[in-house]
Amino acid sequence: DIVMTQTPLSSPVTLGQPASISCRSSQSLVHSDGNTYLSWLQQRPGQPPTLLIYNVSNRFSGVPDRFSGSGAGTDFTLKIIRVEAEDVGVYYCMQATQFPYTFGQGTKLEIK
Amino acid sequence: QVQLVQSGAEVKKPGASVKVSCKASGYTFTRYGISWVRQAPGQGLEWMGWISPYNGNTKYAQKNEDRVTMTTDTSTRTAYMELRSLRSDDTAVYYCARDLDYLDYWGQGTLVTVSS
To answer: What is the pLDDT of residues B24-38, one digit of tens each?
Structure first.
């Protein structure tokens, strides 16, 4: 199974400041079809997860442009250029390049 | 708009079975897969498996492969996840999600509590 490792596991951030979450996979996420099936999910307290970013860097419909994804191969990053109060929650990276799909442990974003 | 609506909370005894439903609307049901993901209290996300409503093909996580069955009913646009021989550590919120090689729409979740 592909192991997904996120850092940090907790990220206290000041409102209006940037935040960055790293996700590393135990093997390359490049699929034989050439795509890289790495996505980022946000889970607000008490809510189901919601999709933020798919295929490394594509923002899902309705996701604010302060969220961006980047990376390649085994190293990926989610960035929030200016954190807002509504961004509080847990962020997960997920790979769907290979079954079984696997998630990172989650990074808890909180406001200082 | 795409919606996935799941069945209500369940309380089961150890050794029993549970079957969670996930009714889809707002898109062509047979065009995309459905993945099931669970989340134990205070824990992260765990992928359980995937089913193609088009042809019924499935892929299960090895951990619970011998206890889980995923099915779909295309006439009612509903996906089902059955988990047998329930244990206390199966207590979790179970989610269905539309699968395009990323999980773009999620159900609201179904809490399954396993307790004697």
So the answer is: 999 999 999 999 999
